[in-house]
Design brief:
CATH topology: Rossmann fold
Strand content: 15-25%
Largest sheet: 6 strands, parallel
CATH architecture: 3-Layer(aba) Sandwich
Number of strands: 6
Strand order of the largest sheet: 3-2-1-4-5-6
Order of helices and strands: EHEHEHHEHHEEHH
Helix content: 25-40%
Length: 191
């Protein structure tokens, strides 16, 4: 019997509880064996300054998922460098594990941008896309997306970065282990 693996790419700058809820709900709803978190090296559609390094984001994701045996990380995009295109990552995993059935998890904020993804038609033949709704998203989503319902939190990484810069608490928004690493490494310019 082949494995069923969820691929969850993102900047994870920083990872937060909504990411973990999305992954857990998709894992349970689709009967996935594991969900692999894949921090991007350079997001092709989300450019901004002051993003912490890929290695630091990977370390934060590892801290976030350390107590869940069904989650793991992959550094494939960070090691490859350059813009992180999903088609390249999915092809890599398909070559490594041709019998595995892969599902690519996306949040509502990405669904209306999928027509801009590199080689989206080829990608759709390689992987099943799974849409996990996010608060405030009521826009277009392609009919070929599999939808998973999940409890929603109005949380974003940009809101967390702003709160850290402004000296506000992010306790109970990011996992405790993530907050410890942010404080230990003095990430995001918190006061």
């Amino acid at each position: 019997m082949s494995e069923r693996i969820g691929l969850f790419g993102g900047t994870f700058d920083p990872p937060h509880l909504a990411h973990l809820i999305m992954a857990e709900e998709a894992k349970n709803a689709l009967n996935l064996d594991e969900v692999w978190f894949i921090p991007v090296h350079t997001p092709p559609h989300k450019q901004r300054e002051n993003m912490i390094s890929g290695e630091e984001r990977l370390m934060l994701v590892e801290a976030a998922i350390e107590d869940n045996a069904g989650f793991r990380t992959s550094s494939v995009e960070i090691e490859r460098g350059g813009p992180s295109y999903t088609i390249d990552t999915v092809r890599y995993f398909k070559q490594q594990a041709p019998e595995t059935e892969f599902f690519f998890l996306i949040g509502g904020d990405m669904a209306d941008q999928m027509d801009k993804w590199k080689d989206i038609e080829k990608l759709r033949r390689l992987v099943e896309f799974v849409f996990v709704n996010r608060p405030g998203y009521n826009g277009y989503k392609p009919s070929w997306l599999t939808q998973v319902e999940a409890p929603t939190m109005h949380v974003s990484s940009s809101m967390i970065r702003r709160r850290l810069r402004d000296g506000e608490t992010v306790r109970y928004i990011v996992p405790g282990n993530v907050l410890k690493e942010i404080e230990r490494k003095k990430l995001y310019g918190q006061k």
